[in-house]
Design goal:
The complex is a heterodimer. Chain A is built from 18 helices and no strands. By secondary structure, chain A is mainly α. The longest helix of chain B has 21 residues. Classes of the chains: A mainly alpha, B alpha/beta.
Chain lengths: ~500, ~1050
């Protein structure tokens, strides 16, 4: 224990908060984001995202009133953008909880700068994800049949159906994520309550701060609850996307029927989730320059490393799918991978004498974005070049969408009986709904940035050197407890 | 308050009908009975429990009848009692069957019509008819004809100069005509009719002729061809040839699609399939040779097929005739072929084809048959007749039958008379000459030049718009009639419903002309029946006639022995000018073919037919120019997804047509086939805007094919809705076939194809537990691919039975057609570049898997298994996740993407959703089967194995069983709709646990295999592999059963080749 508290050791590490900011600085800078007048750029951004969200809602209303036919789906492609978007958003929702829970349990202190925003992002992503299973059904007004209410209907839902597992997995995940996020917010809400001068804000902050006094008892309970929630969330990170992958893995369709899916989907989800966290936080750092000291290049570097790792796992999974298709000797599966995905019109297709796959470009976009592009993160220079990082993470975002699209659509387009093979083309309504969910996601995130502390103040203070009881301010000679300038954080 | 019931007044004049002697006598007692609401003593019922309940029951039933029954209550009043008077044999929701027959030029189709509360809803073949041999099958058009009855666009009123008038005025006008022409003995009066072998119509024609002897009679069938005339030349006036295919070991089709609905007869189809239905390798399979320019379903069934231009068929016939003449020493053939020797040089066919074919035919003398296509020139028919004579076909494989119709003028003669102003009044019964008369006649101009044109038609169509008088024409389910079926048997046409729109039948019009009143009932037919019916009790005979639907033994009187008139035939063939053939250099032939969907255009407004995919091209809602891949390359055109490049065809006379191409594997090069019947300008909501009109290219001189040098790509594209875009099986052992040789070597050859060989002997275990299959009956099906011709009658039958909606061209392009049953069509060849691929069909419907992948994935338990082995679908429970459809390896599930039953499908209106009208036309609703739910949008549907028929049979069994527990449904007590419709009996459905059932017997065949067996879905549908019977000496015989050949080579891996995409067709 002594060594870990060795101040000499502490200074050797790059500090997690740059420029030696003090506890007070953290409170001040984070709180003022919420307290200051709404900046002009926020209005501009919101005026862009909210109409997009509204357009998405109009598309949904049109689809529900008229029929699923307004989308481009057909026989045999029963799912397309709807479930692609669902899996895409639910995947993005993985980073937040991973950062909050797994990194918390593994004592990764760098998580504290980014966990609040990532958790919020998770919630909003799950909100966007949750839209699709709800609206993709033919009779939305009957979707409650999915709920196990046998006393009303006389029958249970079908517990063998992975789609039902989805319902449970996603709703559990959402509930736990909300609780986790909210629990973490309580001390910060109390801080804001104490600082605010507006009566309205005071009312709401008081209400949601749950009477937080910062007492020892409060902290004890808080820490315990947080730990338990982290413990509950950790398996959920793994289970949700595994369950989502079962939608495909338990089916008989070549290209879906693959046992590698659960780990491959989880890795992909974390991969895509981190990319989205960076996509959001990099601009946020520019819009609120004070965040630059909290979300430092060091944080970005670590997230890039996770992206590199999970991207490589995903790449391995892609390769393994091909290997198994070849090794398994199942001609249908071989067809799905070679003829529906790999065969391009320029190199591999002609070399193998295979006609180009209808969506070959989607497959190759996926490979380029997900496997090739993160490889630049092997180089430290690239991980510290924010422009490079921003471009690559957006490639990853696109790549992860294409991954789901490729899995869903190319497998369905050409399955067992060639007579029913039929190409799929999206309609404007599908595209509009997807774009609309970005509007919803970004609008919610903008509201979150504006009205709630986007950095976990109380947690970040713990990682400040000053929070160490044995902290000695540079140049000071005081002993434990004597340094009046460095109060123990509350 | 007591209400005095007033009986309808007795009819004025005429006979007096009385109910009892009391009424006749006008006694007071009887008057009292009439006045009383209830019989004497009824009011004094003791009010006990039983009586009151009984009363309530009766009242309830009457109310129900009044509410439900009356809406569809339209029947001939003379024979049927209105439901308010409680017809005890009519129960709401229960069907009643009536026999009838559908008129068709090549023989009436004997039918049994299902009616519900007076609404005919479903057409089935009459199994008792002698040519049906215990299994009623029909063609596609008969199945779809019930929709024509309910076509909401049918003409609804009588028009005079376009102004609405009524029936009485029309009758008066007809009477006036008789008076006006009576003095001139009918000169100036002309009647244009369709070809219709109806004895009553002929009798009425004779009656008219007796009064107005100079009346001009003309019969025009756009697709009639020269077959009839040629047959009369060859075999004598009044004789028609009737091929007996079940007796033929070797059949040659010279461009004759005798298995197709447009040209074939049920008799021919059934006869052929009888010879293809074999269980053991020791049985003899007939052999079919087909010579044609485009793939027809006959060509698909052929063991050997020669792909030549339609105009070369005559040349081929001459060469073959020469060979047969030499081999048989037949004088006529030798003589004729020598005169035609010059033509012989112009055709070159694959070496050995003609010789080997001739050898095979001659070797099977007496058991061989040559059939010529209806559209082929007379010379080809005569050559075929001569060859048949030489091969000893007459009396063996060919029978004769008397024609019903008396000779009538051709439309060309009538046109000449009109041009010479000899016709002042023209009555057009049916047909549509303005649209389909030969272009050189310039019929519209002729018709306008006639002062009075009376048009009796089902729709206000092109011809009707240029008529002075228009009368709606009754549908065959609305009138009394009669006819001769293909085998010559006399059949009855019974009305099922009063004319919905007050239409008149041809018989009604002719009767009026003959000075008879418009018949109110079957009087006219009865009179005809009196002449040919059996002696003795007329009523009994008549009732039996209606009950059976045919007059037993009536074909014998019409059978004629065939005598080949060699001299006359030889002389006619000598006019070799009609055998001009495609010369090759720079020339294209344009071939006008009957259309699969709309025939000659008459079914243009029938949505079922429009949406049933063409068996060969899988095209819906359109016609297109079919060309071979090589010709497409030559013209620089190709097919794209859901469209084809447009070509412009210009004839020498300047007629032009722009039409999209459709690349058709197996099509002859430099030959362009376009079906007629599309591009109608005056038609209903379904047919308008569909396709391209080919009739303007068609002339009296060249009714079948015409040559031109001017064919060019225009650069435009035409949208085409095709339901199957992939042509190749990709080596997937989906349709398994073998040659007779293979079958003899290994009767179970089909069980080891594809991945089936790799299956564990003990079978695969299932991951899931399944509820036990405990019911007494276990339903299953067997489909014999060797007898299935791919005619699609089952597809329409399924649609009619199960209330499947049509979705329109736009939705078909989007891949959303709703057929529960489809016929998969593949082309197969060992070499991808082979221009002569084989064509294979396979009906696909829900396989009712015991381990159904759809059931496990449905989150709401909407699709579950029943104890009798059905994979059932609870529409009310379905929320439409489409997961089941995704996970179905057979892709047989159909999703209601829109409210197809409620919203208009035309003009993109489905996409307007709630902004469109929400209702289907009332008449369309009348067609619906009340025992099948009409599905709403957002639910999944699929084949149910006709569960309503199963339940109907179960209820009947239980009712019969009463208190006993003998509730097992009798063997083969009922049939599924597809099984019933199949004229080939290729589909057997029933209890697979019952060894005596048809399905069990078929399933016992060694050729059985299940689709995608390796997935362990355990389907309840068994396919029997297709067999080919190649002549080993024939060129190309080694290529047959391509897939099997690949398998034998030991490497049909879809990774590498498979039976490649034999086409360059739409990708």
């Amino acid at each position: 224990m002594e060594t870990s508290l060795d101040p000499q050791l502490a200074v050797r590490k790059t500090p997690l908060v740059a420029n030696g900011r003090s506890l007070d600085w953290v409170t001040e800078k984070v709180s003022t984001i919420v307290e200051a007048r709404t900046p002009f750029w926020w209005w501009v951004a919101f005026m862009i995202t909210s109409p997009v969200a509204l357009f998405g809602l109009i598309c949904i209303a049109y689809q529900i009133s008229t029929g699923v036919g307004v989308w481009g789906e057909n026989h045999p492609v029963g799912w397309a953008w709807d479930i692609t978007n669902f899996v895409f958003w639910i995947g993005i929702g993985h980073a937040g909880t991973l950062i909050s829970a797994i990194l918390f349990l593994t004592r990764q202190k760098w998580r504290t700068s980014i966990n609040r925003a990532s958790e919020a992002m998770t919630l909003f992503a799950v909100v966007c994800a949750g839209i699709f299973p709800g609206i993709h059904v033919g009779r939305v007004w009957m979707a409650w049949f999915l709920a196990p209410v046998p006393w009303y209907e006389g029958i249970w839902p079908n517990f063998r159906s992975p789609l039902l597992w989805d319902v449970f997995a996603v709703s559990t995940y959402f509930t736990v994520s909300v609780l986790f996020w909210y629990t973490g917010l309580v001390p910060d809400l109390a801080t804001l309550r104490d600082r605010t001068t507006s009566r309205v804000k005071k009312f709401f902050f008081t209400l949601f701060a749950l009477g937080w006094r910062g007492s020892n008892r409060n902290w004890r309970h808080y820490e315990m609850a947080y730990l338990i929630l982290a413990g509950i969330s950790t398996p959920l990170v793994l289970s949700v996307h595994s369950v989502v992958s079962f939608d495909f893995a338990t089916s008989v369709i070549p290209g879906w029927h693959t046992t590698i899916f659960p780990p491959y989907f989880v890795a992909g989800a974390i991969f895509g989730g981190f990319a989205m966290v960076l996509t959001i936080l990099l601009p946020a750092r520019i819009l609120y320059p004070q965040l630059k000291d909290l979300i430092t290049p060091q944080h970005i570097d670590r997230m890039c490393k996770i992206i590199l790792l999970t991207g490589s796992i995903v790449g391995y999974a892609y390769a393994m799918e091909f290997f198994i298709a070849w090794y398994g000797g199942n001609p249908y599966e071989q067809w799905a991978f070679l003829h529906n995905r790999l065969a391009d019109p320029y190199l591999i297709g002609p070399a193998l004498h295979i006609a180009p796959a209808p969506y070959w470009w989607a497959y190759w976009a996926m490979i380029t974005c997900n496997v090739l592009s993160p490889q630049v993160f092997w180089f430290k220079k690239n991980r510290y070049n924010l422009w490079v990082v921003f471009i690559i993470v957006n490639f990853v975002n696109m790549g992860m969408w294409f991954e789901r699209f490729v899995i869903i659509v190319t497998s369905l387009e050409q399955d067992f009986l060639p007579s029913m093979w039929h190409l799929y083309h999206p309609s404007w309504v599908e595209v509009g709904t997807f774009v609309g969910t970005f509007g919803i996601f970004l609008s919610l995130f903008l509201l979150f940035m504006r009205y709630l502390p986007m950095i976990a103040m109380s947690e970040i203070k713990i990682v400040l050197p000053e929070s160490d009881p044995h902290y000695v301010a540079p140049g000071a000679h005081g002993t434990h407890g004597e340094d009046a300038h460095n109060p123990v954080p509350h | 308050m007591k209400r005095v019931f007033h009986h309808p007044p007795a009819p004025r004049g005429g006979k007096k009908y009385w109910r009892s002697l009391d009424e006749l006598a006008g006694t007071e007692g009887f008057a009292e009975v009439l006045k009383r609401e209830f019989p004497q003593g009824a009011a004094e019922f003791d009010g006990g429990e039983v009586s009151r309940r009984h009363f309530m029951k009766i009242m309830g039933a009457s109310t129900a009848l009044a509410g439900i029954g009356l809406a569809g209550c339209r029947r001939p009043e003379m024979h049927l009692v209105p439901f308010t008077k409680s017809a005890e044999w009519s129960i709401p929701g229960k069907f009643l069957f009536y026999t009838s027959a559908m008129p068709a030029a090549n023989g009436y189709v004997p039918l049994i019509v299902t009616t519900y509360e007076g609404r005919p809803t479903k057409i089935e073949g009459n199994p008792y008819h002698p040519m049906n041999d215990g299994h009623g099958g029909t063609d596609l058009y008969a199945q779809a004809s019930v929709l024509n009855l309910y076509d909401p666009d049918r003409a609804r009123s009588f028009l005079n100069q376009g102004v609405e008038t009524d029936e009485a005025a029309f009758g008066k006008y007809l009477d006036g005509l008789i008076a006006a022409y009576g003095g001139k003995q009918g000169d100036g009066l002309a009647i244009l009719m369709e070809d219709d072998p109806s004895p009553t119509r002929e009798r009425l024609r004779a009656a008219v002729t007796a009064k107005l002897p100079l009346t001009r009679w003309c019969v025009y069938e756009p697709l009639g061809g020269s077959k009839g005339a040629a047959e009369e030349t060859a075999f004598g006036t009044g004789v028609r040839v009737r091929p007996l295919l079940e007796k033929a070991d070797v059949v040659l089709s010279l461009d004759c699609d005798f298995l197709g609905s447009a040209e074939g007869t049920i008799e021919g189809v059934k006869g052929f399939s009888k010879r293809r239905r074999i269980d053991q390798p020791t049985e003899k399979l007939s052999r079919l040779y087909a010579v044609e320019n485009r793939y027809t379903i006959t060509g698909g069934m052929a063991d050997h097929r020669l792909r030549i231009a339609a105009s070369q068929v005559g040349v081929f016939a001459v060469q073959l005739a020469a060979e047969i003449g030499t081999a048989t020493g037949d004088a006529t053939l030798t003589g004729v072929t020598q005169t035609l020797g010059k033509t012989k040089a112009t055709g070159s066919f694959p070496a050995g084809w003609v010789e080997e074919l001739a050898k095979d035919l001659v070797a099977n003398r007496g058991r061989a048959l040559v059939l010529a296509g209806a559209q082929q020139p007379a010379a080809v028919h005569l050559l075929a007749a001569a060859m048949n004579a030489a091969l000893g076909a007459p009396g063996n494989t060919l029978a004769g039958i008397a024609t019903v119709s008396k000779p009538a003028a051709a439309i060309g003669d009538l046109a000449k008379d009109i041009a010479d102003k000899k016709v002042s009044t023209l009555i057009i019964l049916g047909g549509n000459p303005i649209y389909d008369a030969p272009a050189d006649l310039d019929w519209p101009k002729l018709q306008v030049s006639i002062p009075n044109v009376v048009r009796v038609g089902s729709h206000v169509d092109e011809t009707a718009t240029f008529a002075t008088w228009f009368a709606p024409r009754a549908h065959y389910l609305e009138y009394w009639g009669d006819g001769r079926s293909a085998d010559g048997t006399y059949v009855a046409v019974q009305p099922m419903i009063l004319p919905l729109f007050g239409g008149w039948s041809d018989n009604d019009v002719l009767a009026r002309f003959a000075g008879l009143p418009k018949p109110a009932g079957p009087e006219l037919v009865q009179e005809t029946f009196r002449e040919m019916g059996p002696a003795g009790d007329f009523d009994a005979a008549w009732n039996k006639f209606l009950h059976d639907g045919f007059l037993a033994g009536s074909d014998t009187g019409t059978s004629k022995t065939l005598f080949f008139l060699s001299a006359a035939a030889g002389a006619s063939i000598g006019e070799g000018a009609s055998l001009t053939a495609l010369s090759g250099g720079g020339d294209y032939e344009i071939v006008f073919t009957p259309d699969f969907h709309v025939y000659d255009g008459r079914y243009n407004n029938n949505g079922w037919l429009q949406e049933t995919p063409d068996p060969i091209t899988k095209l819906t809602w359109d016609n297109a120019a079919l060309i071979s891949p090589a010709t497409a390359k030559e013209l620089g055109v190709e097919n794209h997804e859901a469209s084809g490049d447009m070509i412009e065809i210009t004839l020498e006379n300047g007629a032009k047509l722009e039409v999209p191409i459709l690349i058709a594997p197996g099509h002859a090069d430099r030959s362009i086939s376009i079906s007629v019947g599309y591009g109608r300008t005056e038609t209903g909501r379904v047919g308008s805007g569909a396709g391209y009109n080919v009739y303007p290219l068609r002339s009296s001189q060249a009714p079948y094919y015409v040559f031109t040098q001017k064919v060019r790509a225009t650069g435009g594209r035409g949208v085409l809705a095709i339901t199957q875009e992939h042509f190749s099986m990709e080596g997937r052992a989906q349709i398994r076939e073998g040659t007779m040789e293979t079958f003899a070597e290994n009767p179970t050859f089909a069980k080891v194809m594809g991945l089936d060989e790799e299956l564990p002997k003990a079978g695969n275990p299932s991951l899931y537990s399944h509820p036990p299959l405990t019911a007494q009956e276990q339903w299953g099906m067997a489909i014999d691919l060797n007898t299935c011709t791919g005619c699609n009658a089952c597809v329409v039958a399924c649609q009619a039975e199960n209330n499947s909606p049509i979705v329109g061209k736009e939705q078909v392009i989007n891949g959303r057609e709703m057929h529960w049953m489809r016929i998969d069509r593949y082309f197969a060849s060992t070499d991808e570049t082979d221009p002569d691929p084989e064509m294979l069909f396979e009906p696909l419907l829900c396989q009712q898997c015991e381990n159904a992948p759809c059931e496990t994935v449905c989150p709401v338990n909407a699709t579950v298994h029943t104890p009798d082995g059905l994979n059932s679908m609870a529409y009310n429970r379905c929320i439409g996740t489409r997961y089941c459809a995704n996970n179905c390896p057979y892709k047989v599930r159909r999703f209601n993407f829109f409210d197809y039953n409620q919203r208009p499908i035309q003009n993109h209106q489905l996409y307007y959703g709630p902004l469109t009208t929400k209702a289907s036309p009332d008449t369309i609703k009348m067609q619906k089967n009340p025992n099948v739910t009409v599905r709403m949008r957002g639910v999944m549907e699929k084949c149910t194995f006709c569960v309503q028929r199963i339940e109907e049979a179960r209820i009947a069994t239980k009712v019969k069983a009463g208190a006993s527990d003998n509730v097992k449904i009798p063997v083969d007590a009922f049939q599924s709709a597809c099984q019933q419709a199949c004229p080939n009996e290729a589909i057997a459905f029933g209890d697979i646990t019952e060894p005596e059932s048809k399905v069990s017997k078929l399933r016992a065949s060694p050729r059985g295999y299940r689709l995608l067996e390796y997935l362990n879905t355990s389907p309840r549908v068994l396919y029997l592999a297709k067999l080919r019977n190649p002549n080993p000496r024939m060129p190309g015989a080694e290529k047959l059963a391509a897939f099997e050949k690949e398998e034998k080579k030991g490497g049909a891996s879809p990774m590498t080749n498979g039976a490649g995409d034999a086409s360059g067709g739409p990708k």
